[in-house]
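sry for the spam today, last one i promise. C-alpha cells for design, 383 residues
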C-alpha cells in the first residue's frame, strides 16, 4: 500500500476560544467601519494606523493590561493574530506611537465608526419599541490615572486615597440587552449631574431615537444625576424617568409626608411609602416613592425615587401581571425593584470592565476600549 507523502502541520495556541472569536469577527467584518472612517496622521511602513489599533484591540481581548504585553501575548502567538486576519503583528512601541498620534478629530471619527458597528450588529438598535420598552441606564464611574493622562483631574474615586487624580467614564447601557450604547470620558471632577444630558444626547444619536421612540424609553439614573433640572430635561424630551433625587435634605422632608410605611419583603430592614406632597416642580406628572433603611447607629437613611411611569406602564416594564395595579403595596415593591435592577445592569458592566479587563491600570487602553464596548455588550455576535 502506498503511503501518503502529505505532511501534516499542527499549530497550537493557548487562546483557542479567542481564536474562534477572531474567525467570527473576520466573517462579520467588524473592524471595516474603523478602517474606512478613522484616518490617523501617522506614517505607514509595514502596517496601517488602523491595523495597529486592531493589534491593540486583539491584545486587549487576550488579557493584556499594558501595551508592552502586545509583544508577549500577541506577537508570541502567531496563530492567535492569524485567526483575527493579521498575518503579522506590529511591535508594541509602534502601536503606542500610533495612539500618541491620535487627535480629537480621530476620537470623533472613532465614535462615528463604532456607532456604525453598533447599528449593524446590536440588538439594542433593532429594539421593537411598539412591542416593549427600551430601558436605558445612565451612570458614571471613576477611573484613577496618572497626572499626565488626558482629563486627569483631582476628584472623588471610591476606595482610593484622597486627592487622587483620575477621570470619569460616563456610560449609557441598553439594560435589556446588556449593551453599552455610549462611553464618554470626562475630567475627574465631573459628576453625572453635569454630564447626563450630553450622554443621553449621544445615545439618541447612536440609537437614532425619534420622538415616538423616546416615549417608549425608560431612563434610570441614580442620585448623582437626580436634579430637578435633569429630570425636567428628560421629561421635556419625551422620556419616561425613574431615578433617585439628589437632595438628601429634601428627601428627609418628603419622607415626613408618607402616611403609611410598609416593609420591603426582600429586605426587612428597608421600608417604603408614597410621598403625598404634590410634585409641583416637574413639567410632567410624576410620583415619588420614599425609601428608608435602618443604619447601624439606629437612625434612618432616607432617599426618594421619582417615577413618571403610570401604574400599568410600571407593570409592563417590570413584567408583572396587570392585576397588581389595584394592590398599592405591590406597586410600591415593584417600583422599587425596578429601580434596584440598575445594580445588575450598568453597575455590573463597570465592574466587568475594571475587574475582567483591568482597564483602570494602563492609561492608553481607553483608546482601544471604544471598539471593545461592541464586543463586551454584543456577545450574540460570537454565537
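last one done:
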Amino acid at each position: 500500500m502506498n503511503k501518503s507523502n502529505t505532511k501534516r502541520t499542527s499549530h497550537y495556541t493557548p487562546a483557542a476560544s479567542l481564536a474562534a472569536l477572531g474567525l467570527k469577527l473576520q466573517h462579520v467584518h467588524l473592524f471595516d467601519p474603523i478602517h474606512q472612517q478613522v484616518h490617523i496622521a501617522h506614517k505607514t511602513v509595514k502596517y496601517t494606523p488602523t491595523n495597529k489599533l486592531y493589534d491593540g484591540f486583539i491584545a486587549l481581548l487576550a488579557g493584556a493590561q499594558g501595551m508592552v504585553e502586545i509583544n508577549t501575548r500577541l506577537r508570541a502567538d502567531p496563530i492567535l493574530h492569524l485567526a483575527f486576519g493579521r498575518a503579522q503583528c506590529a511591535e508594541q512601541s509602534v502601536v503606542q506611537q500610533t495612539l500618541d498620534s491620535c487627535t480629537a478629530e480621530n476620537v470623533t471619527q472613532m465614535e462615528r465608526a463604532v456607532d456604525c458597528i453598533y447599528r449593524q450588529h446590536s440588538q439594542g438598535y433593532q429594539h421593537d419599541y411598539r412591542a416593549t420598552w427600551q430601558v436605558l441606564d445612565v451612570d458614571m464611574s471613576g477611573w484613577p490615572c496618572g497626572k499626565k493622562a488626558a482629563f486627569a483631574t483631582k476628584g472623588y474615586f471610591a476606595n482610593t486615597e484622597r486627592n487622587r487624580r483620575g477621570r470619569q467614564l460616563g456610560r449609557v447601557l441598553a439594560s435589556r440587552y446588556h449593551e453599552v450604547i455610549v462611553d464618554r470620558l470626562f475630567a475627574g471632577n465631573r459628576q453625572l449631574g453635569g454630564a447626563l444630558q450630553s450622554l443621553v444626547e449621544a445615545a439618541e444619536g447612536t440609537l437614532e431615537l425619534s420622538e415616538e421612540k423616546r416615549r417608549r424609553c425608560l431612563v434610570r439614573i441614580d442620585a448623582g444625576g437626580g436634579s430637578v433640572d435633569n429630570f425636567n430635561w428628560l421629561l421635556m424630551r419625551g422620556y419616561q424617568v425613574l431615578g433617585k433625587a439628589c437632595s438628601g435634605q429634601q428627601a428627609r422632608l418628603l419622607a415626613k409626608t408618607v402616611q403609611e410605611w410598609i416593609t420591603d419583603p426582600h429586605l426587612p430592614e428597608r421600608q417604603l411609602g408614597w410621598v403625598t406632597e404634590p410634585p409641583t416642580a416637574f413639567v410632567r406628572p410624576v410620583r415619588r416613592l420614599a425609601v428608608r433603611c435602618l443604619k447601624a447607629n439606629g437612625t434612618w437613611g432616607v432617599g426618594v425615587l421619582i417615577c413618571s411611569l403610570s401604574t400599568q406602564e410600571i407593570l409592563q416594564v417590570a413584567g408583572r401581571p396587570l392585576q397588581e395595579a389595584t394592590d398599592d403595596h405591590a406597586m410600591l415593591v415593584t417600583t422599587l425593584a425596578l429601580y434596584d435592577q440598575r445594580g445588575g445592569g450598568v453597575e455590573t458592566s463597570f465592574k466587568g470592565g475594571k475587574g475582567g479587563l483591568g482597564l483602570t491600570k494602563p492609561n492608553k487602553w481607553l483608546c482601544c476600549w471604544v471598539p471593545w464596548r461592541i464586543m463586551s455588550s454584543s456577545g450574540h455576535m460570537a454565537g
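The first strand starts at residue 134 and ends at 144. ok im logging off now
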